[in-house]
Amino acid sequence: MDILTSISYMPDEERRLVRRAISFPKWDISHLIGSALILSELRIDGEWMAASILRPQEDAQGYLDEVGREFGRKIRDIVELLSVMDRFSYKPFSDEHAENFRRFFLTMGKDLRTVFVKLADKLYDLRSNRFPSDRMREIAEEVLEIYVPLAGRLGMGKIKMELEDLSFKILEPEEYEALSRKVLSLTKEGEEYIGEVSELIKRELEKEGIEAEVYGRVKNLYSIREKVRRYESEGRKLEDIHDILAIRVIVGDVKECYTSLGIIHNLFKPIPGEMDDYIANPKGNLYRSLHTVVKGPQGKSLEIQIRTKEMHRVAEYGIAAHWKYKEGFKDPKFEEKISWLRSLIEWHRELSGKTFIESIRTDILKEEVYVFTPKGEIKSLPKGSTPIDFAYKIHTELGHRTIGAKVNGKLVPLNYELKDGDTVEIIASKSEKGPSLDWLNPENGYVKTSHAREKIRQWFRKRERRENIERGKEILEKELKKLGLLMKIEEVSSILGYDKPEDLLLSLGTSDVGISEVVGRLLPEEKVKIPKKTKRPSRINILGTGDLLVNLAPCCNPIPGDDIIGFITRSKGITIHRKDCPNVLSEDEKERFIDVRWEEEKSLYPVDIKIEAWDRVGLLRDITSVISSEGVNIVDVDMEEKGGVVFLRFSLEVPDLKGFTRLIRRIEDIKGVRFVGRGS
């Protein structure tokens, strides 16, 4: 079928748009036409089909502008969106792969039609086998990892099975051919049997006035291969698989589905426990059908699927069969079914790149189980999920407060693996008990979904944050009290450039910032609060020598801050002049000048400290030795003893707050000292 014939379902205006798109590119678009033919099976709209055909060979801004001028802004934007998807590269386990994977799924979350286009692209690539063998193997691996489970999640069974079989054929051609021959042999033997049973069912339905399409279907090879591998681990063979051939019954409406089921169960004995009602309880991918297994003629087990024509189309094309292209159209039931897509955006905000990938693989692309809440609501979860996963699916707080679970009215361990049809009741504590760290241990099997695992990790991160903030507050308040600094935490955090006091306290609590660094940065602000007591007289430093006899020249009277120069006299040492002194400028013996400079002024500040310590021999000696070694002057000391405890008060002269802080810490380390702090 050619592309123009395949789009007969479109309105005239959309068909004209697609024709224009086909003639616009100046390069070979045969692969895009092949993909568009597959999209026509999905009944995609004209704008998106045109945009899929207009995709550039490479990223070209100029070309996109041309598309915008010719086809309008909307189609230009769709072309750009699809071009972003085309740049997704498959490189497993690399950082680039993680980021591309994230972008791919977030772009898909914006509009599902992007993934319809990508599925069509990959299916065409596999059908045409148009690349070298190494590249085709890469495509097949990519398809099995990403696109097959995605097609399954979207309910696109027909496309999923073809993707599986073609990938299987490319990756393992010998096994594919061998299995194909075996299955062909089995189906040839069973075709006559299936034909007879199908005819029998059709006649019985016609007797009851039900016009039905009844035919046999063959399970796809990839699914058979996967089942064979499971059976081999149990010691069973290919011949033991009973659903390689099955019968499908297509009727007019839902009522006829259930009527047909009753007729078939009267005709053949149903096998207990092998009946599934996916009409009353649809799968998350919109799949609806009745499944039953019966003992057919000759005592052979036979699977029969019963559905309407609409259900059959959904089974083949899934969400694509329900997609509505009308702008602003909202179907609440449909929106509920694809709610998992909306969660992609939420997870993007919460999770890191690799955690996001893990969530997609374990929570989105995995097979599902369907369980009930105590109120009868259906919840879908990844296969292998536990009651804890279920609790976090309902609500994060319920997960945090989970202490037990009942399944079908019976207590079960929290690592119980949920099964289809289970009714799950969570036993929760009245207070927020919080999750257990044991839940995060994979060996215990308590949590299987990344969604639940991340919520548990977030709880522990928040708890650790609270504890670290409290620890930081304690450290800062103790230090401020010790140094006698009357400052609020808000004031300290502002001085240090933190937006919030909690950020400073968290940094202190986690040791990202040391308390000495905080005190050191407070020095300029606090220093002005210490009353200045004395200032040593300015001295003059003569470069390259020690102290020599110097005199200030009376002719220019230099003062600290002036640019100065020394003049070596014959009997009075060195005379210091200002550099602009007339006597300096007129001096002929320039060799007698020497470079000098004012020595930096050093100020000392008075401060009192209080010390409490257990009385012992040598205590005062140890304290004064530490003070002396720090270059601090002791101006006065007072001592009092009560009940074996010595109370000391020192009046000191210190050069700066940093030195004072260091002194306090060294005194704290002296044996017997209970408290050191600034005196009032």
- Kindly report the average pLDDT value: 81
> CATH H level of the largest domain: which superfamily?
Hypothetical protein af1432
β-strand number = 22
Largest beta-sheet characterization: 6 strands, mixed
| Count of helical regions | 27
Query: Structural class of the helix and strand makeup?
Result: alpha+beta
Number of domains: 5
Give structural notes.
The chain is of the alpha+beta class and 680 residues long. The protein has 5 domains: 171 residues, Hypothetical protein af1432 (Orthogonal Bundle), CATH 1.10.3210; 146 residues, Beta Polymerase, domain 2 (2-Layer Sandwich), CATH 3.30.460; 68 residues, no CATH class; 62 residues, no CATH class; 76 residues, Alpha-Beta Plaits. 50% of the residues lie in helices and 17% in strands. It has 27 helices and 22 strands. Strands 1, 2, 3, 4, 5 and 6 form a 6-stranded mixed beta sheet that branches. Strands 12, 19, 20, 21 and 22 form a 5-stranded antiparallel beta sheet that branches. Strands 14-16-15-17 form a 4-stranded mixed beta sheet, with no helix packed on it. Strand 7 and strand 8 form a beta hairpin. Helix 4 crosses helix 6 and helix 7 crosses helix 18. The longest helix has 35 residues. The protein is elongated, with a radius of gyration of 42 Å. The N and C termini lie far apart (96 Å). About 4% of the residues have low confidence.
